[in-house]
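Usage example:
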Amino acid sequence: MNAQMASLHDFRNTLHGLGDNLGIEDMPDEERVSRAKKTFLRKLDGRKAVDLDTCLQCGMCAEACHFFEATQDERYSPVYKFRPLRRFYRREMSPMRWLYRPFTRDIGVEDFEEWQHLVYDACTGCGRCDMMCPMGINISTLIRVMREGLAAAGYMPPELQALRNEQRDQNTLFGVGKEQLKALVDKLRTENVNVPLDREQADVMLLTTAVEVSLFPDALAASARILNKTGVDWTIRSNAFEAANVGLISGDDPTLNLAIKRIVEEAKSCGVKTLLLPESGHAYQAMRWEAANEMGEALSFDVLSMPEYMSSEIQAGRIKLKAQSNGASVTYHDPCRLSRKSGVMQQPRDVLAALGLDIRETDANGRENYCCGGGCGEYVLKSATSLRQKAFEIKRREFDETGADAVVTGCANCRINLLIGADNSGWQTPVKSLVETVAASLAD
Amino acid sequence: MTLLEFASGPALQWSLWIFVFGVTWRIVGAVFLMAKKDLSRARHKKNLSDGVRTMLSRSIPAHAFEKRIRFQHISGYAWHLALFVSVLFFAPHILFFESLLGFSWPHLPNTIILFTAAIATGVLIALLIRRATHHVQRFISNADDYISIVVVLVPLITGILAFAHIGGRYETLLAIHLLSVEAMFIWFPFGKLMHTAMTFPSRYQAGTSFGRRGVKA
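Running the assembly step on the lines above writes:
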């Protein structure tokens, strides 16, 4: 067993006990319904109303969903996953509510019980259905509102509750806080990798994640080596280093806002010009697209992902690479929230091309890419274990068809899920990080 | 007042009023919910072209999806094209539209219209059967899905019967055809036939929201 798989097993052991002391949050049923309705009311706007009013119920979205494809279970049709939200809209908000109300059942606790599985276990919010819908409906956004409604009603799965509580109350994740980060930074220093921690002012503020610190420290080391190579003035701030946002993936708005606020305030106090996100799709989504709206004002700095940063630095000649000449082939796994939801698709491919690698695309790639099966926090959910593995098998088939020597991805959570899938099924193809791949080929 | 006089007089007038008022009410009602301004920095700022591109591009499924939805894709085109030709290029229909709009356009020969109406009817019946039997469609369907198919199917069938003079006096068949069309006008704003008015706005907003993130949706 190599060191990475040993670390993965340790990490999986951590996941086993996550949330074991938690269950459905305690509150009266009326309170649950009231909270869900208030959330739906707050989240439904004109755009979502147009989407809800346009849906033909054609069911084509099912064909885009990896969970439906893997199981053929009609409950996993994306259109069905937002059914209670649609009923709420028709009863309470639609211009035709006076007509629909007598014919439309009100939402209730029994809905929350059924839909907890459908929107947490059976949806990673990957948004592939958004690309399929002939009506142009943003289906994954509607399902996200369902998650938010269920979270408000106390139906967040225990594993996500545990992580949400930890991030909200202790500003740590998986037990990783500033002490663990400092310990890693000290260790990296002994390996001649300098991580400038807690500089008061810097042009670039790099975020990392608890997952990088505990499971993929090489990724943080790689980011540091790349940044040091460019000569940029950068730092990591131990008060706000965590890029992962459990609020976003669990549907808990206050935590989404809190985690964003910690980072934005820290970045402002450092006078940064660029906030640099590590390999995490959802973290990029939170900071690149949601932070300004959560803060109520435009951000005073740029937000970039590592693939974007590396691509522009290679282009500018500030990063020089030793091109590989051994004919090695790779396939790139697009993290959904970095690619389909954020437009970072060409940059990682440019980086891989600059390395001289033979890039072999999966049949579905870029905006049509299949999710790894464990996005949006799904990889921590014990109730989703079997479903997640079935979705992984779709990815595995696509990867195998390329015949590539390795899979490279730009998201640590995708990497974890692919490694777990590989571990479960004995799949041998290496799954690599893009930053680590680049750092391994930095020219002197 | 004969049945035909009723169908072509007050029934037509009222059904059109309900149609126009209902469609307007539903569109205005949804749009008036508004959406907050997005404060994030756009990657791509060509809102109009992004929106228009998606209005068109969603008519052709992407490669990765096409093979999985071939039946819906082909039947969708066959149904809509056959319906539009039958409705818009049948000589008596054009006379009707001229009485409403004040202008007309060339018509197609009756044999072609009969052919397209038969195609539209056949495809719609196939879609109805699929909705009732396909495990996903049957599971997700509600009354609106079936009513909306039936209120479009009946005018097609009554139109073909009136055209072919089958099943009764021509005046009676024509009156029934008109009444069935009026039933469709009345149902239109309340059910999913509204997609006719909502599809392009919905596609446009998908194009702009993904476009500002640099994704060609």
